[in-house]
Design brief:
The complex is a heterodimer of chains A (112) and B (112). With 112 residues, chain A is mainly beta. Chain A is built from no helices and eleven strands. Chain A is globular and about 40 Å long. A five-stranded mixed beta sheet of chain B has the order 1-9-8-3-4, with no helix packed on it. In chain B, strands 2-7-6-5 form a four-stranded antiparallel beta sheet, with no helix packed on it. In chain B, strand 6 and strand 7 form a beta hairpin. Classes of the chains: A mainly beta (112), B mainly beta (112).
C-alpha cells in the first residue's frame, strides 16, 4: 500500500535531549512537510522540502532541523533549543503538480 | 497566500445537511480552494478541491460563487462520525516557493 509512515507513534524524552522523528513515503512525491499541532490549535509549518537536498524554513523552524537526502525520507530533529517541544507532529507529502497533501498518522512527543 | 476566515465551531444533528462557509476576500486568480478533515490524533485528510462554481464527490460538495471571495463546504446527511475539524485552505497549486498554511479550522460537532 502507498502512503506515509511516521514512527514512533508516541515518544518520550527528557528535557535537554535531541530527538529525531521519522517520516517515510512511498508515493513518489517530490514535496514533503513537517507540521506541529498543539491542543485545540491548527497546524503550523516547521519545514518543507520541494526537492531532494533542498528544504525551506516554515513559520516555526527555530529549534528544529531537517534533512532530505532521499526522496522518500524527511526526518525531523527536535533539538534541545526548542523551548516547548511537547506537541503532536505531522508529516505530509504532495506532488509538485497538485495541491493535495497526504498526511502520516503523526508522532506525539512528550518532553519532561 | 490568501487569508481565510471560517467559524470556530458548529453543531448539527445526525441526518442534517451541514454547510461550512469560508471567506477569502483576497483570493488570487490562480488560487484553488481546498478543504481538509481532521479527526483527533490523526493527520488531516483531503476532502475536496475546486476553482469555481460547484464540485461534488462521494463525500461532499463545494460551492464557489462567481466572485470566488467565499466558498461553502456542504456535507449531506451527516452522521456522528463526521464530528471533526474542517480546514479551508486557499492558494495556488504547489510550486517550489509555495507552502500551505492551515488555520484553526471549524470544529464540527454532530449530535445524535
Amino acid at each position: 500500500d502507498g502512503g506515509i509512515t511516521q514512527s514512533p507513534k508516541y515518544l518520550f524524552r527528557k528535557e535537554g535531549q535531541n530527538v529525531t522523528l521519522s517520516c517515510e513515503q512511498n508515493l513518489n512525491h517530490d514535496a514533503m512537510y513537517w507540521y506541529r499541532q498543539d491542543p485545540g490549535q491548527g497546524l503550523r509549518l516547521i519545514y518543507y522540502s520541494q526537492i531532494v537536498n533542498d528544504f525551506q524554513k516554515g513559520d516555526i523552524a527555530e529549534g528544529y532541523s531537517v534533512s532530505r537526502e532521499k526522496k522518500e525520507s524527511f526526518p525531523l530533529t527536535v533539538t534541545s533549543a526548542q523551548k516547548n517541544p511537547t506537541a503532536f507532529y505531522l508529516c505530509a507529502s504532495s506532488s509538485n503538480r497538485g495541491y493535495e497533501q497526504y498526511f502520516g498518522p503523526g508522532t506525539r512527543l512528550t518532553v519532561t | 497566500l490568501a487569508k481565510t476566515t471560517q467559524p470556530i465551531s458548529m453543531d448539527s444533528y445526525e441526518g442534517q445537511e451541514v454547510n461550512i462557509t469560508c471567506s477569502h476576500n483576497n483570493i488570487a486568480t490562480n488560487d484553488y480552494i481546498t478543504w481538509y478533515q481532521q479527526f483527533p490524533s490523526q493527520g488531516p485528510r483531503f476532502i475536496i478541491q475546486g476553482y469555481k462554481t460547484k464540485v461534488t464527490n462521494e463525500v461532499a460538495s463545494l460551492f464557489i460563487p462567481a466572485d470566488r471571495k467565499s466558498s461553502t463546504l456542504s456535507l449531506p446527511r451527516v452522521s456522528l462520525s463526521d464530528t471533526a475539524v474542517y480546514y479551508c485552505l486557499v492558494g495556488p497549486p504547489l510550486n517550489r516557493d509555495d507552502k500551505i498554511i492551515f488555520g484553526k479550522g471549524t470544529r464540527l460537532h454532530i449530535l445524535p
